[in-house]
Amino acid sequence: MNASSSAQQTEMSNSDLIELETWEEIYKEECLNFKASLETQAGILRNTSEGADRIKDVRKELISLSHQAERIKEAAFEMVDETPDSVYVRNATPEWLASRFGDPQLEQICISMEYSLDRLAFELRSHPSMDLMVAGHLEQMMDDIEMDFL
Fold it and tell me: Out of 5, 47, 92, 113, which could bridge 69 as a Cys pair, Cβ 3.0 to 4.6 Å?
């Protein structure tokens, strides 16, 4: 699967989100799509050698994923407001969703993911030979999503 087919899958998944009923379902779907896209891009970087087009496609997808991190954050805060009995809300630490001393951890992590994805896209543009290093970062982000968001 290449980056453009992954982008098409994400687009189809986003239209499916309209049919979901609760913010909890939307949040979970956004997180799962995000994680799957990270996995796809890491796999492309590790397992294919299609040259410059491969790097260009992955860079585009990473920028798209940085915008998806914002959607995850928005869905999470809507879920807190609309579905306070959600399993995700009940399992979260108080600092995860609200903080007396600044932005909630969830918001900080989403902003950090956005920045990291943009930085990794720039890194690939500047140094395409860093593809395996970028793949490693994407795999770490997959683990972080699983641990912190799902």
Answer: 113
Report the chain's C-alpha Rg in angstroms: 16
pLDDT digits (tens, 9 = 90+) for 21-40: 788 888 889 999 999 999 99
Determine which of 5-14, 54-63, 79-88 has the lowest per-residue pLDDT on average: 5-14
- CA-CA distance, 128 to 51, in Å (whole number)? 9
User: What distance in Å separates the CA atoms of residue 101 and residue 7, rounded to the nearest whole number?
Assistant: 37
Q: At what angle do helices 23-47 and 3-17 cross, to 10 degrees?
A: 180
Q: What is the largest CA-CA distance in the chain?
A: 49
pTM above 0.85, yes or no: no
